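Deliverable D2.4 — example input (structure tokens):
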């Protein structure tokens, strides 16, 4: 509208101009779109496109038009007969479709997209094609638009325009449309199966002189090659020159602006085993290595990332080994360019999975380079030093030479510093450092280097941290170290049992399993004492739920009991034929809530009421085992007797008068039965640990064991009651005798040989102790504070064999307790297990064992004709 003039001919400011749109007048401009005049429509649409384009970074103007429902009015003119109106309508529609809600309004009616698609297929005007393709690119950003475009069946037209259009903008928009379709699985198959689809046309656009078109083509190629499950796409790409074209672009300085994108495509493509093989067979690995040498610093990390990703696959590692890329990884590690360290370290870690490559890398200074980077606090942990740790762990796992280098003082110190200064290092690094320790256990030399008190102490300190997985891994390291005998004593010297006890109370099945395995591997006599003092044994016995959850809970408890038979008798109420009483074995006359250690018993103040029986064969001061005990130390190592004398503050053997009587008993039995170390095959005397598996190794046992059992029973009864049983062995008489002993010795600890008036408990103890030392398989059971008995496992000979008076041999592995030794009623007799006579000694079957924290209950039995007890 022309400006108005007044009568004096002066100009006034226009009140309104529909072709100079402002947010206040936009409503009028939208209303003008309903005009029938082509000139008005042309000027209005032109003004709208100008108004919408004024805010390229701000969408305020387009939001105003959208809120005025301008799209509905613009759609009426996209197929207007006037070409200029058609151009401006499509341009304005494309601008409004860039709004988040714009495509939804257009796609609300599927006819709208078909009208635009018709223009793309029928029109040849370059502006119409540009704006129509731009609208389609915007509409297909969502799943609804992509589905409607596929239904419109114009994919062939899009491919044709992309290949043959002289306008790069049309080509770019068509590529963008295809890229949008590839984002939706229901549409992508229609694109790749279309007869017009071909790789050469897309690959040719990657080398276009127009950067935007080049970027769009590369993006589309990356989307296609990332479809690893689409066998048709993968097969056709391998058949094309795609990989070679990518390398050609990398080698062209003219296309340096898209090198990062090209490397991104290659990084995506080498995500499968087959694609990695194809890259190698195409000769591209050598071309990538050449590019790595001459590339700009910013491109080197991207190129190296492609090679590193190939090392994740078996065929990729083989290809990298054949091209010497593993040595390139090693050469790049000491470089000052920290951007290359991450992938170089990961490449080394992955290449160690290929043995020839690992051996070749180990011949370089790779371990020193890794440890140098690891000790550099200026290097970032994520992911440079983490990958360095991973590479170090992998090398130490399979290459002995690398493991030996890793435990050298300087290199091993950098590895240990991770957990020494754990507050400054991430937990993931601590995990990997412990994993290195686990891998080092594979070799004797590296294991021996870790057998130091300081290192054991560090591992124990790691167990005190709150991270469960780290605890489990550290526990496994300690368990592996316990294969060496010295490690057990270092562990005990550093109070490792205290840390095990603390962690064992954490309710975590995996941690408890690992700790139980550690107990089995590490427990010693001193360690068993410590577990008793800490209450670990009591906790393990009482925790019945853990017994069902943790499979090695019971074996761990048995391992402790094997080194502490005193505790087993107190908590289990029995000692089996494979449980051997050791020097210092002690038994309480009456049990309390907790079973005390010998140190606690000795420190009990007077008056002394309840006696404690102790087994001491050797005179004070303690001497190494002599011929009195058939169990000599294994391989001449330091005996547990000597270690007990130097243990840290724990009383292994109490200061009691010399038990010369007990020693005399044993010497006399040796004169009668001979030296068991020379004549019996029941046990292996070269090992101080007696187990069922050792007995199974024995070939035979003598049929004379039954007579030995009877003679021993007579002898025990004679020592406890006199030759003619003249001593009062009733319960009051026994108690009075024990009280006199405690008063005379001024201690509640009484050597068993000092007891000359004994009841069932005292006799059974003496029988078990002596039977263990003459090679007689004997089990001890206790059902009350004073009621105990022994069962022996001896060959049961037929009558006709007894008459022959010949000694025969029988398989030792088949021995089971089969006779109850009568030490109180018919003294010296052996009664078959389960017989009436045996039941008179053992009591009813339902009689409870006498245990810690389990007072004896009254047994109510059903009487029958075979059971009169």
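Example output (designed residues):
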């Amino acid at each position: 509208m022309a400006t108005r003039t007044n009568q004096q001919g002066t100009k006034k400011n226009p009140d309104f101009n529909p072709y100079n749109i402002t947010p206040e007048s936009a409503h009028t401009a939208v209303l003008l779109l309903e005009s029938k005049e082509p000139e008005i429509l042309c000027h209005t649409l032109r003004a709208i496109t100008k108004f919408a384009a004024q805010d390229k970074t701000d969408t305020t103007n387009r939001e105003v038009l959208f809120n005025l429902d301008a799209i509905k009015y613009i759609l009426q003119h996209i197929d207007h007969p006037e070409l200029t109106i058609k151009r401006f309508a499509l341009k304005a529609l494309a601008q409004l479709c860039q709004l988040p809600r714009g495509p939804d309004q257009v796609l609300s009616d599927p006819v709208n997209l078909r009208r635009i698609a018709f223009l793309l297929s029928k029109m040849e005007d370059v502006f119409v094609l540009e704006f129509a393709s731009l609208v389609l690119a915007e509409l297909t950003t969502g799943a609804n638009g992509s589905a409607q475009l596929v239904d419109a069946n114009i994919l062939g037209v899009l491919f044709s325009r992309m290949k043959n259009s002289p306008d790069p903008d049309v080509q770019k928009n068509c590529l963008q449309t295809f890229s949008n379709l590839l984002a939706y699985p229901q549409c992508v198959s229609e694109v790749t199966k279309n007869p017009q689809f071909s790789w050469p046309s897309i690959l040719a656009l990657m080398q276009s002189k127009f950067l935007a078109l080049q970027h769009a083509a590369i993006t589309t190629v990356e989307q296609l090659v990332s479809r690893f499950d689409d066998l048709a796409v993968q097969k056709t790409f391998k058949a094309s020159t795609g990989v070679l074209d990518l390398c050609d672009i990398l080698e062209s300085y003219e296309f340096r602006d898209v090198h990062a994108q090209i490397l991104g495509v290659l990084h995506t493509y080498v995500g499968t085993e087959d694609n990695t093989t194809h890259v190698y067979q195409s000769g591209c690995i050598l071309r990538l290595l050449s590019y790595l040498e001459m590339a700009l610093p910013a491109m080197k990390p991207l190129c190296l990332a492609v090679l590193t990703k190939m090392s994740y696959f078996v065929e990729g590692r083989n290809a990298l080994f054949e091209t010497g890329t593993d040595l390139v990884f090693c050469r790049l590690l000491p470089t000052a360019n920290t951007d290359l360290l991450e992938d170089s370290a990961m490449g080394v870690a992955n290449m160690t999975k290929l043995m020839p490559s690992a051996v070749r890398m180990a011949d370089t200074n790779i371990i020193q380079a890794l440890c140098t980077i690891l000790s550099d606090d200026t290097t970032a942990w994520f992911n440079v030093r983490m990958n360095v740790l991973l590479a170090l762990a992998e090398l130490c796992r399979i290459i002995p030479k690398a493991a030996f280098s890793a435990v050298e003082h300087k290199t091993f110190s950098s590895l240990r510093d991770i957990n020494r200064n754990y507050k400054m290092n991430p937990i993931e690094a601590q995990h990997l450092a412990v994993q290195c320790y686990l891998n080092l256990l594979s070799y004797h030399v590296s294991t021996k280097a870790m057998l130091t008190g300081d290192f054991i102490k560090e591992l124990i300190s790691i167990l005190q941290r709150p991270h469960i997985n780290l605890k489990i891994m550290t526990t496994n390291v300690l368990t592996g170290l316990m294969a060496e005998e010295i490690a057990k004593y270092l562990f005990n010297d550093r109070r490792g049992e205290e840390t095990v006890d603390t962690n064992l109370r954490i309710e975590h099945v995996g941690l408890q399993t690992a700790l139980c395995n550690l107990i089995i591997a590490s427990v010693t006599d001193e360690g068993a004492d410590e577990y008793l003092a800490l209450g670990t044994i009591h906790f393990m016995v009482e925790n019945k739920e853990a017994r069902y959850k943790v499979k090695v809970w019971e074996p761990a408890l048995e391992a402790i009991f094997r080194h502490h038979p005193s505790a087993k008798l107190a908590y289990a109420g029995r000692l089996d034929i494979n449980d051997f009483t050791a020097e210092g074995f002690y038994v309480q006359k009456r049990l309390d809530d907790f079973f005390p250690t010998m140190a606690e018993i000795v420190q009990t103040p007077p008056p002394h009421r309840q006696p404690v029986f102790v087994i001491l064969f050797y005179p004070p001061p303690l001497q190494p085992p002599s011929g009195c005990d058939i169990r000599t130390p294994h391989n001449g190592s330091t005996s547990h007797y000597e270690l007990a004398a130097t243990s840290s503050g724990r009383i292994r053997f109490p200061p009691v008068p010399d038990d010369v009587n007990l020693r005399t008993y044993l010497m006399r039995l040796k004169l009668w039965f001979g030296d068991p170390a020379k004549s019996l095959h029941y046990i292996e005397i070269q090992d101080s640990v007696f187990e069922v598996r050792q007995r199974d190794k024995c070939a035979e046992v003598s049929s004379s064991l039954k007579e030995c059992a009877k003679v021993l029973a007579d002898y025990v009864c004679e020592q406890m009651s006199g030759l003619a049983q003249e001593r009062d062995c009733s319960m009051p008489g026994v108690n009075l005798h024990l009280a006199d002993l405690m008063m005379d010795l001024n201690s509640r600890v009484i050597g068993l040989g000092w007891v000359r008036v004994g009841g069932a408990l005292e006799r059974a103890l003496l029988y078990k102790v002596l039977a263990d030392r003459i090679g007689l398989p004997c089990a001890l059971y206790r059902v009350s504070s004073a009621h105990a008995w022994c069962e022996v496992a001896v060959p049961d000979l037929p009558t006709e064999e007894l008459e022959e008076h010949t000694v025969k041999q029988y398989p030792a592995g088949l021995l089971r307790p089969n006779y109850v030794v009568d030490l109180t009623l018919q003294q010296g007799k052996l009664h078959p297990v389960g017989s009436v006579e045996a039941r008179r000694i053992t009591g009813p079957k339902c009689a409870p064992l006498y245990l810690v924290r389990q007072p004896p209950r009254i047994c109510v039995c059903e009487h029958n004709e075979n059971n009169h007890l």
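The radius of gyration is 45 Å.
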